Fold this sequence. Notes:
Blueprint: H1 3-35, H2 38-58, H3 61-74, H4 79-105, H5 107-113, H6 120-146, H7 150-175, H8 180-221, H9 233-285, H10 290-309, H11 313-331, H12 335-362, H13 364-372, H14 378-403, H15 407-429, H16 436-462, H17 468-492
Helix pairs in contact: 1-7, 1-10, 1-11, 2-4, 2-6, 2-8, 2-9, 2-10, 3-4, 3-6, 3-9, 3-11, 4-6, 4-9, 5-6, 6-8, 7-8, 9-10, 9-15, 10-14, 11-12, 11-14, 12-14, 12-17, 13-14, 14-15, 14-16, 15-16
Amino acid sequence: MATxxxxxxxxxxxxxxxxxxxxxxxxxxxxIRITGSEGIGIYQMVLPLYFTMLTVSCAGIPYAVAKLVSExxxxxxxxxxxxxxLTAMMMLAVTGGFTAGVMYQAAGFLSTRTFTDPRTGxxxxxxxxxxxxxxxxxxxxxxxxxxxxMFQVAxxxxxxxxxxxxxxxxxxLLLAERGIGYVAIALAIGMISGETTALAVLLGSLAxxxxxxxxxxxxxxxxxxxxxxxxxxxxxxxxxxRSSGWQTxxxxxxxxxxxxxxxxxxxxxxxxxxxxxIIPARLVKGGLAVQEATAQLGQLAGIAxxxxxxxxIINMALATNxxxxxxxxxxxxxxxxVKRQTQKAVNLTIFLGLPVSSIIxxxxxxxxxxxxxxxxAAPVVTLTALGAPFLYVWQTTAxxxxxxxxxxxxxxxxxxxxxxxxxIVYPLAAMPGIGIKGAAISSTINCIVGAVLNLKYLFKLTxxxxxxxxxxxxPALISLVLTLSAxxxxxxxxxx
Length: 496
C-alpha cells in the first residue's frame, strides 16, 4: 500500500470515526442527563463480558483475513481473496453461533452469581444475537480493509452507530418510567439494531463489489469479435487443482495467524471482565451501597472512558490501515517503508493525542458539568486523561505489530497491562476516600505499561527509535501552550 493510499484510508476512517464518536458522545451525554448514571452502569457492567465473548467469537480471524487478503492482492491474485473471505466466513459462523448460544444460556447464572446487580441478566440475553451479528460483520470488515476499500468499512461504522443511538434513545424515552433496568434493556436493543444495520450494509457492499468484478471479468474474457474465449481444458484443470490445494491449506493459514491473537485477547478480555466485576464489589466493600457502586462505575465507563476515547479517532484509523499497509510492505521486503510508516504513525499519534488529553485533564470539571451535568466525575476524568496519550500510542503500535505478523506481541503487552490494572484496582477501589478513583489510576498504569512494551518490541523488530526532541519535547511544549490557552479562555468566559 502506497503512502498516499494509507493517508486516504486514514482520512476516510478518521472522518467516519469523528462522526461515529460525535454521535456516540452526544447520545451518551444525553442519556446520562435524562436517566442518571445508574442505568448506564448496568449496561456498562455487561459490556466487558460482551466484548470478551466477541473476542472469543472472532478468534483473531478478521485480522488474519485483512493480512492475507492484502498479501494476496499484492501478488496480483483476484480469486484468492474471495476464497479467503469464504473460508473465514464459514469459520466465523460456527464460532459466532456457538459463543452467542453460550452467552444466552449463561445469562441467568452470570446475573446472579457473577455480577453484583441481577438486573444484568436480561441485558446479557439481549446482547447474544448482537454478538453473532458483530462476529460476521468483523470478518467482512477485515476483508474490505485488506482490499483497501475503507469506504465500506466507514459507511457501516457510521450507520451502525446512528441506528444504535436512534433506537436506544427512542426506547429509553418510552421505557424509562418503568425503571432503571429498562434503560439498560433499551441500550441493549439499540446495540442489536446497530449491528443488524452494519451487517446489512457490509453484505450489500460485498454484493455490489462482486457484481462489478464479475462484469469486468466477463468483459475481459471476450475476444475481439465479441465472443467468449473458452479456457483450454489443461489450463482449466491446473487452475482447479491450484484452487483446491489453496482451499485445503487456507484454514490452517488463517488459524496460524489468528490463534495467537485469539488466545492472548481472550485472556486479556477475561481479566478485563473480572475487573468490571471486581470494581463494584470492591466499592461495596469500601462502604458504598450496590446502587451507588453501580452509579460510580457508570461515571467511569460512561463519562471518563468516552472522553478519553473521543480524541482517539485518528490513531484508531491509523491502526486499522497499518495492518494491510505494513503487511504489503513486508511481503515486498520493503523494510525501509515499514520503518518510515512506523515513524510517521507514532509521530502523528503523539502530536495529536497529547494536546487534547492535556486539555481534558485540566478542564475536566467544566467539561463534565457542561456536557454530562456530573461535575463530581471530574477527578476520575482527570486521572484517566493522564493515561490517554499512552493509550493512543499503545493502539497505534499494536496495529503496526499486527501488520508485521507479530500479533502475539501486542496481545502480550495487553495481557500484562491488564493484569497490572487488576492488581492495582483491587486494593485501591476498596479504600475509603479513593474508591472509583483507584480504578482510574489503575487504568492509567495499564495504558503506560502497554505503550512502553509495544514500543520496546518495535525497537527490536524495525530499528525504530523515539527522538526525544521532535517526538517528546516538541509535542509537550505544544500541549502546554494549547492547554494554558484553553484554561485562560475558560477563565475569561467566566466559567466556574
